[in-house]
Every structure is written in structure tokens, then in C-alpha cells.
């Protein structure tokens, strides 16, 4: 099975270099790479050029900023492969990342997702962010019914190209987050399953400070409300709240680190998410943009 790695980029050129370097180290050889420049101010050509003789790589530049979902759609349209594998430009893939997806692929009804681990362990805000993200992923692995998942993060997942195109890919209306949850809603509504691939792990280099951390969590809350509004407009059934057990696990995993600061930031993140959701519900109106 030939695979295509789709990378949306909006100007994080320094991290893009590391992402492409990690693809040069893959133990899977039959794959292509499509990097989509979401109209970044300085472009990506200088960062991609050194890899043109090391990777089967193609680039596409969007004429105006359209968001990560639209960039991924454009990359999927350009890709020539059976399996689409999506990776963000601030992630480092391990050597067996791609081959793990290729080995797990086969049933086109399965959308596959790997774990996103902390690539900035010296950053207390990144530690808190990943405490939540990794607890979510690991809790789904404990589900003995084939490790099914309710949603995946678009930074690291794979799916059959024909099925991706059949459901219309990402909804480009989600320009500022939530596009991955929207895709999962459409996928599950069509009878597909979301499956975890633990070996397809990436490191996420996410250097944050206090302000960026709080604003990011607030934005996630806004995105969650946008998704609920979008689901209602599209006629999809409303989803219930996450189980109390999941939040208990997040707190338990944070406590297990022995870091009171991390626990405090995890609690703050949940307050910021709730505040963002409430703000969007009161002020967001009907637009996703």
C-alpha cells in the first residue's frame, strides 16, 4: 500500500524542518509527501528545497489563508496514494510511525490515530497540555473492544483516500479549530470506526507560555461550541457530555506526576475551556469563521 503524508503549514518554518527530517528517517520507503502552504507570509520553499532529493515531496501554496482543514483537503486532492496520513508541522515522527499505519491499514472503514506525546518536556505548560491529551488517548486504549475512539486529533491520523474524499474531507468552515471533531462526526455517522494505533507515535513540540496556554484552552472551548452548533445545523444528533470517569482520570494522571504546578495548570485548562465554550455560546453567532 502506498501512503502519502499530508502536512499543512502556516509559517512555522523552523519546526517544519524537523518534521521533514523525521520523515527522512522512516523505515517505510514507498511514500510521498505533500506540504501545503496555507498562504504563510514568507512561504515554505526555502525549508522544503533541501529535502527534494531525499523525499518524494510536492508542495502547494494556497492563494489566501484558509485554515488547516482546507489545507489538508488540498493536500489530499494532490496526493497519489491509497492511504492518506496527516501530520502537523510541529510534530516529529518516530522511525516506525508510517510503517505502523501501513500495517494497521486494510479496512477502509477504519480511521486510524496514533498517540501525540510531549516533545517539550521542559515546558511546564506543554506538560499540562499533554497531561490532558495523553490521558484522553490512553483511556481509549483501555477499551477492550478494539480500542475504539470517539474522536481523533488531526495532527496524527490516517485513513483511506477514497473514503476521505467520499465524505467531503474536512469542512472548510472550521478555520480556527474543530475541523477534526467535525470530520469524526461525519465519519462515525457514515458507519466508520476510529481505531487507535499505539505504535504510530509522534512527539509534539509545543512551546507555550502562560498567556498562550490559557488562550489556547479558551479557543478549544470555543471550538467545542462551534462543533455543537454545526452538528445541529447539519442534522447530526447531539453528543452527550464526557463521563465523569474521564475527568477523574485526567486529574489522577496529573497527580501521579507529583507536580502540584502541573495539576493546577490542568485545572486551569478546564476552567478556560469551559469559559471559551460559554463565551462562544453567548457571542459567537452562527459563523464558524
Summarize the structure in words.
The chain has a single domain (3-283), classed as Alpha-Beta Complex (Spore Coat Polysaccharide Biosynthesis Protein SpsA, Chain A), CATH 3.90.550.10. With 289 residues, the chain is α/β, with parallel strands linked by helices. Strand 1 (3-9), helix 1 (13-24) and strand 2 form a beta-alpha-beta unit. The protein has a 7-stranded mixed sheet with strand order 3-2-1-4-8-6-9, sandwiched between helices. A 3-stranded mixed sheet has the order 5-10-7. It has helices at residues 13-24, 45-48, 68-78, 97-104, 124-141, 161-166, 179-189, 210-234, 244-256, 260-283; strands at 3-9, 31-37, 57-61, 83-87, 91-93, 110-113, 116-118, 156-160, 193-196, 202-204. Helix 7 packs parallel to helix 8. It is globular.
Concise synopsis of the structure shown:
The protein has 289 residues and is an alpha/beta fold. The protein has helices at residues 13-24, 45-48, 68-78, 97-104, 124-141, 161-166, 179-189, 210-234, 244-256, 260-283; strands at residues 3-9, 31-37, 57-61, 83-87, 91-93, 110-113, 116-118, 156-160, 193-196, 202-204. Strands 3-2-1-4-8-6-9 form a seven-stranded mixed sheet, sandwiched between helices.
